[in-house]
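Work Package 3 (structural annotation) set out to generate three-dimensional models for the target panel prioritized at the project kickoff. During this period the team completed the workflow that converts sequence records into C-alpha cells, so that structures can be stored uniformly alongside our sequence database. As a representative example, we reproduce one entry of 568 residues exactly as it appears in the project archive.
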Amino acid sequence: MNRRSFLLGAAGLAGSAIVADAMWTADPEKPSALPFRLTDVSNSAGIHFRHNSGAFGGKLLPETLGSGCAFLDYDGDGWQDILLINGMDWPGHRTQRSTLQLYRNNRNGTFSDVTHAAGLDGTEIYGMGVAVGDYNNDGFPDILITGVGQNRLFRNTGKGTFVDVTRSSGLAGRTGLSTSALWLDYDRDGRLDLFVCNYVKWSQEHDVFCSLDGKHKSYCTPEAYRGETCWLFHNRGNGTFEDVTATSGIFDSSSKSLGVAMLDYDQDGWPDLIVANDTQPNKLYRNNRNGTFKEVGVESGIAFSTDGKARAGMGVDVADFNNSGAAGIAITNFDNEMVGLYRASGKGAYEDVALPAGVGLPTKTMLGFGCVFADLDLDGALDLALANGHIDETVRNIRGNVGYAQPPQLFLNLGKGSFRDVTLEAGPDFSQPRVGRGLACGDFDRDGDVDLLLTTNNGPAYLFRNDQQVRNQSIRFRLVGTQSNRDGIGAAVRLECGGVTQTRMVKSGSSYLSQSELPLTFGLGRRDLVDRLVVQWPSGRTEEFKNLKAGKAYECVESRGITPQSGF
C-alpha cells in the first residue's frame, strides 16, 4: 500500500501473488535459543532524551519524519559517544526549547550529557539527520545536521567543543527539507565531500491543506508536493565547499529522498551512491571516475519493486550480507510494501530476494524507517535490524492489523541467502512496539559486540546493549588514512578466516537520518585467528596483514601498518 491509498483509508493487501523460489526459502529449522539478548539500558546508561516533533494539531509534514542518531568518538578517547538529533516547536506555537543532545561515554557503561559544554545547545534547528566525518583531516570528527531550513555544519575543535562553521564553509544560503546525509570522497583526492538528501519542496508558509473528510486537516502524502534535488558539495581543502550538484550529474528535481548509502556496486574502487526515494524510483548513481555520476537505478534493478512500482523508500543500508564479495542492499518501505532486499546478481544488476530470503512477509504490515546490517551474534554473517513505526496515530482506525507504534525487527542471518525473524527471541525490551525512526549500531561498551541505538518520533531514544549468551569471537578495526581521508571512509576491508571471506566498507550515513560507528566489527564464531586481512584504501593503496589474533581491536594506519589496541 502506498502512502496515498493509506490516507484514503483503503484496506486489504495489494500487489502480486507471493511466490518463493524454493532454493531461497528460509531454513525451517530453528535453533533452540538465540545466542544473545538485546537489553534496554537507556536509563541506567544516563540517556534521557525525548524527541520533539513540534506537533500542535496543524498536521505539518515534517512532524511525521522523526529524527536520527549517531555513534561517534567526538573526543578521540577510543570510546563511542552518542549524538541524538531533535526537532523544535514551530514558530507561533512555542512552549519549550529543544536542541540536539551529545552524550559523552564515561567508559563504565554510562554517559554524561555534554551538549552545553560542547557548545551544541546554542542553535535551535528543526533537526532531522546527522552525518559524521572528519572533513578537514585534523583527527577529530565533525558533524553535519540536516533539517527544515538551513542545515548546520559544526567543526570539532579537538578540545571537546564544536564551532558552527555553516557560513564560513560556504554551506549557508541553501534551505530545504533535508533528511539523510553522508560524507564520501567521491573524487578520491583525500578530502571528504558531502552529499545531502532533500525530501520535497515544503515550508510552513506553503503547507498544503489535505483532508480525508474535506473539513479536518490531515498529514499530506509526498504526492501533494513537488520533488527536490539532492545536493553534492565538493571539499576544496581549505575549509570551504563548492556546490557541484548540477555539474556532477546529481541534479534531479523529481526525487523525494529520505535515505542514502555509499557502495562500490561495480567494484572499481570508486564510491557510488544509492538513494531511497518516497513514491519515486530509487536512484543509483554510478561514479564515472571523473567528478561526475550517471544514474543507473532502472538498469540495475533497484528503482522499482518486482511488480514495477515505485515504493515509499525510507531507509537504506548496504553490506555483503551473503559473504559473496559483492554488496547487497536493504531498503525499508511503507506498510504493505515490505522491505526490499537486493542481492547482487552479477554485471551490475540486483534482484529483490526479500520474499524467498524470509524478510518479505514479516515486514508486510510494518512501516520501516531505519535499517542496519550488523553481525549481532558474531557468527560471521550479517544480520538485519529494522526500526518500524507509522506516520499517523489514526492508522488503527483505517486498518486494524497495522499499528502506530510497531516493534522493531531483527532478522538473523542463517546463511545460504535466508534470514529468520528473531525479534521476540531477542528479548522483551527490544520487541516492544514503538514509533521507530532512526537506527544505528556501535560497540559503546567495548566488549567486542555491536549494540543498537534507536530513536522514536516524539518520544525517547533507546540504547540496546548486546548481551552475548554464547560467546563468539570477534575482531575490530579502526582505519586511519594518510593519503586517503583521515577516517578511511570508502576503504574496503576483506577478512579471510576458516575458509570464509567477509567484506566490509568504512562508511558514513546509511540507515535513516542516522550514522553508525566508523570502526568495523567482524564476527569470527569460535575461531581464534584471522588468516588474512586485505585493506583497499580510497587512495588506491592495498595492504595485507596475516595471522591476527581474535578478541582484539586494531588500529590500521595507511602505509604505517597495524597495531593492536588495549581491549576492544
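Residues 3-7 form the longest helix (5 residues).
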